[in-house]
Amino acid sequence: MRMSSNPSLLIVDDDISFVRAAAEIARSISYDITVAGTVQQGEIWLKRETFDLAVIDLSLPDGSGLELVRACTRSGTDVVLVTGYPSVETAVEAIRTSLLDYLVKPIEPARYRALLESVAKRRSLPPPVAEQGWHGLIGASQALGMMITQIRRVAPTDASVLIQGESGTGKEIVARAIHAESLRTGAFVAVNCGAMESEQLASQLFGSESSDSGEGHGMLPGYFEQAAGGTLFLDEIGEMPMLLQGQLMRALESGVIRRNGGRSDIGINVRVIAATHYRTDRGHGSGQLRDDLFYRIGEFPIAIPPLRERSDDIVPLANLFLSHLNQRHGGRKSFTGTALEQLRRFSWPGNVRELRNAVSRAYIMAGSDTIADPLGQIRITTPLEETPSTLTIAVGTTFEEVERRMLMKTLEFFGNDKTKAARALGVSVKTIYNHLAKYQQNPAQTG
Ligand SMILES: Nc1ncnc2c1ncn2[C@@H]1O[C@H](COP(=O)(O)OP(=O)(O)OP(=O)(O)O)[C@@H](O)[C@H]1O
User: Fold this and answer.
1) 169 Cβ below 6 A of ligand 1
2) What is the pLDDT of residue 191?
3) What keywords are assigned to this protein (predicted)?
């Protein structure tokens, strides 16, 4: 997997002198270069990596360069076909496919260089994030643009991705974007590893079979099977019990799983994306993950910065959340410039989720169509700083949100010990798990 930020070029040609000349020009404009001499080698490289540009000879020792064009198009790689023997048929065939250009040898260095420069320039710009966002990701910050570039690069590969970010930064939305941009046709299945007890999580992940059942009976396919050909999103992987982490590691390494109580192995074709709120930059922090699993799932790490570190995203997000509320309630409310500035300067410890809640609260509390002081409610009603053992709740917060925040804060206070949290809240451990599972199934209602 390439980690360099240089543009990348794949040259597929068995003509050594052409390869040398083409590579030299590309290197002079900082391209990372990979060379393949046959269709088969080209296919292997295209499966392994995503390139910005591929320069492919039409006649290769084992077939036509056209055979590689589809794989390139699928992964968003621009293609330039070259030929030493131009003919009308090959030209027509080449034009029918989606090419950046079609060059005849000996190629003009100036034209080839211009092509390389235009691809490199286009790739270095972050893709535009339209008003409705890119796969639901809204924002205008450079950090978001860079994240989108990373997503586009890694999505078509099979690399496992580890997303790190504070709560509410958008880890699930990023995981969904990777799945949507991948070539995987199966389902996206999300599971919160901290929302279930160990045994339940094991049978949900790997499925279960009861031994005394008749044919087809008592067989419950788990999340791995449900995500066949698709993506399994393991949220809060650091909460997964150690024993289960070992089981997961073995499944990922061997490519097979066995249902609980089952007798045969089942092959899995699943791309795993994991997420954690622990910082993963200094080692992997608090020892929540087995070393081998950390390295196995962290092939391609993506760090989502907290909202306070990408304040250019705040205004577009706030405006979008407000326009959703206007649409839902038939309103015409808008923020004043000062209001938007106030939102921009706030630190948003609960990140995008907290911003969305604040916009809802401001919408409900606003006496007119103009919202001038969206944080007024927070300031008036939260004179106290929160501490690890206190929770501050603003007027206008829904019961559901109060319940959720109380539960999460209590769990945090007791170091995620569900038994202690349940005792403190006067409910059963099962109730805690039920709520966590509900938050996982209905994320829209949780914030
Ligand atoms: N860039 C963004 N654009 C639009 N909406 C966003 C963005 N980032 C986050 N959101 C929204 O914020 C909310 C929280 O996002 P999400 O659930 O993906 O966060 P998370 O990091 O997975 O949170 P948690 O760790 O608490 O599960 C969701 O409603 C999501 O749609």
Assistant:
1) yes
2) 92
3) ATP-binding, DNA-binding, Nucleotide-binding, Phosphoprotein, Transcription, Transcription regulation
The residue type of 51 is F
Which helix (H) or strand (E) covers residue 306, if one does?
none
CA distances from 233 to 179, 238, 316, 335, 396 (A): 9, 13, 27, 36, 33
For residue 173, give the ligand 1 atom closest to its CA. Answer: 18
Amino acid at the residue 77: T
Q: What is the rounded distance in angstroms from the CA atom of residue 66 to the CA atom of residue 182?
A: 22
Whether 249 and 160 share a structural domain: yes
Distance between CA atoms of residues 183 and 302, nearest Å: 19
What's the domain range around 279?
142-305
CB-CB neighbours of 382 under 10 Å: 14
Is 60 exceeded by the pLDDT of residue 184?
Answer: yes
- Residue 441 main-chain phi, psi, to 5 deg: -75, -35
The domain tally of the chain equals 3
Between CA 107 and CA 287 the distance in angstroms is: 56
Tell me the helix, strand and coil percentages in the chain, rounded to 5: 45, 15, 40
| Domain termination residue (choose one: 265, 284, 305) | 305
Q: Is the pLDDT of residue 281 over 50?
A: no
Q: How far apart are CA 18 and CA 372, in angstroms?
A: 65
The verdict on the CB of residue 405 being under 6 Å from ligand 1 is: no
Q: What is the ipTM of this complex?
A: 0.95
Ligand 1 center from residue 172 Cα (angstroms):
6
Residue that is last in its domain, among 278, 305, 332: 305
At residue 122, does pLDDT exceed 80? no
Torsion of CA 64, 67, 71, 76, to 10 degrees: 60
Interval between CA 183 and ligand 1 midpoint (Å): 23
Reduced 3-state DSSP string for 231-291: EEEEECHHHCCHHHHHHHHHHHHHCEECCECCCCCEECCCEEEEEECCCCCCCCCCCCCCH
Instruction: Say whether 139 sits in a helix, a strand or coil.
Output: coil
Share of the chain above pLDDT 90, in %: 32
- The first and second tokens of residue 194, run together, are 């901290």
